[in-house]
Amino acid sequence: MKKGKRTWIFANKPSLISGAAVGAQMEKEGPMAPSFDYFFDDMRAGKLSFEMAERAFLQKACNIALEKAALQKEDIDCFLAGDLMNQIISSSFTARDLPCAYLGQFGACSTSAQALLVGAALIDSGFAEKVLCATVSHNASAEKQFRFPNEYGIQKPPYSQFTVNAAGAGILSSEKASVCITAATPGRVIDIGITDAFNLGAAMAPAAFDTIKTHLEDMALNFGHYDLIITGDLGRTGHECLMDILSDAKMEFDSKRILDGGLLIYNTHTQNVFSGGSGCGCSAAVLFVHYLPLLQQKEIRRLLFVATGALMSPVSMQQGESIPCIAHAVSLEVM
Amino acid sequence: MKKGKRTWIFANKPSLISGAAVGAQMEKEGPMAPSFDYFFDDMRAGKLSFEMAERAFLQKACNIALEKAALQKEDIDCFLAGDLMNQIISSSFTARDLPCAYLGQFGACSTSAQALLVGAALIDSGFAEKVLCATVSHNASAEKQFRFPNEYGIQKPPYSQFTVNAAGAGILSSEKASVCITAATPGRVIDIGITDAFNLGAAMAPAAFDTIKTHLEDMALNFGHYDLIITGDLGRTGHECLMDILSDAKMEFDSKRILDGGLLIYNTHTQNVFSGGSGCGCSAAVLFVHYLPLLQQKEIRRLLFVATGALMSPVSMQQGESIPCIAHAVSLEVM
């Protein structure tokens, strides 16, 4: 790292060797469905509670990621995971079944990228050879915890987002493979003073902008370097905000090459998801089962993954606080 | 890292150059009081809510740690912090005032060691030059969230612990200094099936044992290598459990050189704290303002800091789950 820069450059090019995602009915009806590895028939996944179901989603994604890489649990050195549940119980209870080190991550919906960049740093520096990075979210457990149980039927504004029922898991390795993490830019907290907990896309867009701008400046790159920039999850409102901020900043970019996980995972015209998807599992699923294969098949060669998180809690909202937001960027390139 | 080992050895010896801790009235009446940097007169710290007070504690500790190191906020590359609040709002809102990268950590009361070991890895590998590691806990906000508001006056069992009102902050640096982090052992999750949320000391003791044993084996050391092992926070019950487990394992250790942060921060005979202190801020405060100076003055030369965390949530307890626990170890040595 050079003084005054926030970007980490990975000299040893940690590889992303495997990715998996699981979802439920809503995700099965979305445009990303063919890429998913598994769908649970019901949101309870046969469990007694939505929280237990969320954990089952995460465990399933981790197991499939291991299978795809032909690895056993015992081959993993470190499990980096997080979720939206209070005290990230989905991750910690999943860690109980793994014999390796566990470091709980919290970055709300930015957790997928946070886990990847910490994992890449651990592999790059030789502290681990295989790192399992995973996140999950569940619509019913999240709504119940952050807002109201779904059964109440609370009306939502059009700029709100739908927390996905999905888990994504990826395995980083010190072995050479076609898709590598070449650099990463951890985010800083940006809070523009939004106090409406439904308006997360708009709250997070400035953080996405700050991290993308910092990443390009630190690396002396322009937008053209990346075939795609995948943000996640700003939804339609947040994505439009980001386009406006980029335009206002007079940056040269191709809007067709900046996509958002929250808009990719659902059909926002036919599925009742308001401004799009959100939740820890959304951007992780989109990356691990849709864009990782495209990179592996060399259909795209350079992707900047920018996961965004809104770091408020129900208590902070009730106490009138605004929403601190963050975005972490991970650069994936075909070697 | 050698295959099959969990311990990270830091070749570049990241240094711990500054530490600070703040508390409130209970901590001011405890045996560690002379070491603390600052005490808030009231638990609300002049704020409107206990949650806002908790944040003020964390901000104060961070500011003092910066002052002690003669550093500005702008000198910090990365802020690694966590707390017990849902969505770790104390840490994320504190990060809002810092211009650097922020990676939210969650390991319950093990967060202090988790932040130190991730920070040491980032410095050792050149991804950061200065890392601010901090944790906080607040009795009233924690009781309200995890159990009942203090005003209810719920009776507690003698093996329960008292969440400290304290924040601890430490600064890691790539510059050479007298106290270095030479190695660290990230923990794995251990769950022995305890379902009583007051009995956290007993639940966490096996995790402390597992991490200490793994650390000593990975490093080919015996207990005698360390002048002190500071666990945190097992309390009296958990500490006694750990002594029993060590004895049962036929390990050779000097019980006088294994101390617990939860027993050090309060006088458990005269203060009404049941089995001792707990909370993210407890072990951090004890390390940063009491043992760091002892290392700097070379009164002790080798200390193993083993912070323990109980990773349940109120929801997981209500759903009848047992308590997954973890312990992370950090080796501090005088160079």
Low-confidence stretches of chain A: none
Give the largest chain-chain interface (CB within 8 Å): A-B, 58 and 58 residues
Mean pLDDT of chain A: 97
In total, the number of domains of chain A comes to 2
Determine the oligomeric state from the structure.
Answer: homodimer
Task: Please give the structural blueprint.
The structure is a homodimer of 335-residue chains.
Chain A: E1 8-9, E2 15-23, H1 25-28, E3 38-39, H2 50-68, E4 78-83, H3 89-95, E5 101-106, H4 111-124, E6 130-137, H5 139-146, E7 162-163, E8 166-173, E9 179-185, H6 200-219, E10 228-232, H7 235-248, E11 258-260, H8 261-264, E12 277-278, H9 280-296, E13 302-310, H10 314-318, E14 325-334
Parallel strand pairs in A: 2-3, 4-5, 4-6, 7-12, 10-11, 10-13
Antiparallel strand pairs in A: 1-9, 2-8, 6-8, 9-14, 13-14
Helix pairs in contact in A: 2-3, 6-7
Describe what you observe in this structure.
2 copies of one chain form a homodimer. Chain A is of the alpha/beta class. Chain A folds into 2 domains: 8-173, Peroxisomal Thiolase, Chain A, domain 1; 179-334, Stage V sporulation protein AD (Peroxisomal Thiolase, Chain A, domain 1, 3-Layer(aba) Sandwich), CATH 3.40.47.40. Helices cover 33% and strands 24% of the residues of chain A. Chain A is globular, with a radius of gyration of 18 Å. The mean pLDDT of chain A is 97.
Short description:
The structure is a homodimer of 335-residue chains. Chain A has 335 residues and is α/β, with parallel strands linked by helices. Chain A has ten helices and 14 strands.
